[in-house]
Design brief:
Blueprint lengths: L7 E4 L17 H9 L1 H6 L4 E6 L10 E11 L9 H6 L2 E12 L8 H17 L7 E5 L5 H6 L3 E2 L3 H4 L5 E5 L4
Parallel strand pairs: 4-5
Antiparallel strand pairs: 1-2, 2-3, 3-4, 5-7, 6-7
């Protein structure tokens, strides 16, 4: 039984049990494979940082969900670029943090844990990254079934024909105006 009241997000640790995570949908198998085979190595090599949803904040624990973040950039079309004159005229691409992966165990899906992880991510970027490094946006390549989830949290679909028809369309969240 999961103690859902005491679940916390923390950086992944060696020894975290990633085997029990069940996402309930075969299309999400790559999310589980990444967590089991690559997340810790990427984390330790400073490629992408994975934060895991666990019951024990200080010791290896069973993972009930996770979010992986990495540095990125985003190129917006003219109608979606920042409106501040200094920003628009100088840059084609803007600094962003990419949500590389977000997954919640099937027993916790529909109980706001995905939203809690996303809200934590927004706060984390605003408090821990933006004060030290230029970072205007959060970006995510959303699975088609996740677009509405991200839209409910304020993400916007990049408005291009190619992006709208992409299997994993780019969505973004403007941290500066939130």
């Amino acid at each position: 039984m999961i103690d859902t009241e005491n679940l916390v997000l923390r950086q992944m640790l060696p020894g975290d049990n990633t085997k029990k995570l069940s996402l309930g949908n075969e299309a999400h198998t790559p999310l589980k494979i990444f967590l089991q085979k690559n997340a810790l190595a990427f984390h330790q090599a400073e490629i992408a940082k994975t934060f895991v949803l666990v019951e024990h904040p200080d010791t290896p624990s069973s993972v009930w969900g996770y979010i992986t973040l990495m540095s990125s950039e985003i190129t917006l079309n003219e109608g979606q670029k920042p409106r501040e004159p200094f920003a628009v005229s100088r840059y084609e691409a803007f600094p962003a943090i990419k949500i590389a992966r977000l997954a919640i165990d099937k027993t916790l899906q529909g109980k706001q844990f995905g939203t809690r992880c996303l809200n934590w991510c927004i706060s984390h970027v605003k408090l821990a990254i933006m004060p030290h490094v230029g970072c205007r946006f959060l970006a995510v390549d959303a699975k088609s079934g996740s677009i509405e989830f991200y839209q409910k949290s304020g993400f916007v679909l990049l408005d291009t024909e190619a992006n709208r028809s992409d299997e994993h369309p780019l969505m973004f969240f403007d941290l500066f105006h939130q």
